[in-house]
């Protein structure tokens, strides 16, 4: 039995994410948890003719939903609204992620935990600190899903150059998952030579793609469908590696660098960062190897230099939410 739990399954990301994961043959039980409407979403999805059973769990049934989970995906929280920064989301979503992490520590301490709830730069450290308190933290098993930055990069590059295949062209994106912390390594795309103007345009659009959607939806939501697609893609990679035993799978993801302590030692010493998004190879236990940074252009190095101080602030904020509430 491979039980995958979606926390926040009735929301704007949760519903399409659940629909996409219902199609996976690697999932035998899809458990949908939310404070409202989860049983209805589960009933709807349960009619789809794939092997997995679907169960819905309401507000008081978090423990039941999480019990024995192999993988937990967390899109729970409030969406961004016009004028709202990812930081504004923190006070609301941090509490939600903390409570879910307590449930994970209690009911499925060995689960793979995939975090979508923003701000990811801060919510992943929250999950880690809660699990640490319960002696259940394995850095190889906790991930911030930054895949949407990769998906956007592939698509936006394709819009400039139709000769590439947007599906197979995977752009490495390092740093974090908000604004200036998002550093797309466009110089590594084979055969591409972008002008400074194109680089500026692409980089800004990748970094602030979420704002583009928030504005277009005019107060009715944020990037839900594209985020669900990216979330399903990353979840599928985790399942392929941990359940099917497939090797050689690589995605950029935001992780605790102690997941590969030896490989990241020099980078940690240089930057004083404990969390960072980078290309990761996956295995049965989650993180198999954190790949070294690709060779960066001068343009990308400047972006990384700007990202690091912001990342430190985000990480400290998330960590302090659990370790020292008086600092918030």
From TrEMBL:
Its EC number is 1.1.1.37. Belongs to the LDH/MDH superfamily. MDH type 1 family. Homodimer. The keyword Oxidoreductase applies. InterPro entries: L-lactate/malate_DH, Lactate/malate_DH_C, Lactate/malate_DH_N, Lactate_DH/Glyco_Ohase_4_C, Malate_DH_type1, NAD(P)-bd_dom_sf. This is malate dehydrogenase. Residues 2-144 form the Lactate/malate dehydrogenase N-terminal domain. It catalyses: (S)-malate + NAD(+) = oxaloacetate + NADH + H(+). It comes from Linnemannia gamsii. Keywords: NAD, Oxidoreductase, Tricarboxylic acid cycle.
